[in-house]
Specification:
It is a single chain. The chain has 260 residues and is α/β, with parallel strands linked by helices. It has a single domain, classed as NAD(P)-binding Rossmann-like Domain (Rossmann fold, 3-Layer(aba) Sandwich), CATH 3.40.50. Helices cover 44% and strands 16% of the residues. The protein contains 8 helices and 9 strands. Helix 1 links the parallel strand 1 and strand 2. It starts with 6 loop residues before the first strand and ends in a 9-residue tail after the last helix. It binds NADP nicotinamide-adenine-dinucleotide phosphate. The site of NADP nicotinamide-adenine-dinucleotide phosphate has 32 residues, from helix 1, strand 2, helix 2 and helix 4.
Length: 260
Amino acid sequence: MQAAWDHVLITGASSGLGRALALACARPGATLHLSGRDAARLEDAAAACRAIGAEVRPAVLSVTDAAAMAGWIGGAGRLDLVIANAGISAGTGGATEPAAQARAIFETNVTGVLNTALPAIDAMAAQAPGADGVRGRVAVVASLAAFVAAPGAPAYCATKSAVQRWAEALDATERARGIRLHAICPGYVRTPMTAANAFPMPFLMDAEEAARRTLAGIARGQVRVAYPWPTYAMARLTGALTPALRAWIFSRVAAKGQAR
Ligand SMILES: NC(=O)c1ccc[n+]([C@@H]2O[C@H](COP(=O)([O-])OP(=O)(O)OC[C@H]3O[C@@H](n4cnc5c(N)ncnc54)[C@H](OP(=O)(O)O)[C@@H]3O)[C@@H](O)[C@H]2O)c1
């Protein structure tokens, strides 16, 4: 499906899924606002999008900088689609999750999403509806980890659950004023984030396929865009187990390693 949004803003576009989303949105006539922290990788993604014909405005900044994010998003002009994609992950390696790691994951994956979505919603409320009657769409990249309290990644699972629930709940009220929210819940995607995982990753998919499914779900108006279905079903099933049974099952699988 060809993405049809003219004005798109994506955080974490310098790598993995964010870069694939940017490329999938790139076309002549589209303006892409792309952010990341690594200037060289961000510029590489921007150049690839320009080569397809998009106008690209890159911004090197951290999603954890609330003032900088508000300034960037507030000054972007019309925004049809904002994708709060930037995120970090780390596990426990089977030990206690270090406090600094837990704080960093919450700061990026929850506060960073709020720093993206809240100014975007403010900006969209003040803009006219598009041809589809929607003023703007905010897609929050959560994960299928949102549905499982995995002992090997406490902070990661908790942050993804928080933003998935926040986006879905907010959509119910924001759609009354023409703003839509989408909770994106991918399974395993082949990106630098998953490259070091030593455990099995069933139904691992390429970032291009994940981007295609993400944008197709948003275009269909789905509040929750969860894929692929076998991993989703497994996540829902595992999430429904008792904590004790879940902990026992996870104790038999290698945990994701700690941040280095
Ligand atoms: N890969 C998976 O299997 C999977 C599955 C479900 C959900 N997700 C989610 O998908 C999103 C993208 O992950 P990915 O797999 O594409 O990982 P990735 O390749 O590591 O990319 C992460 C992106 O987030 C950016 N980022 C991290 N911290 C940031 C910060 N403080 N400020 C601004 N940008 C920041 C990075 O930018 P720099 O590199 O420039 O710092 C990078 O562009 C994440 O939210 C992740 O949790 C991934």
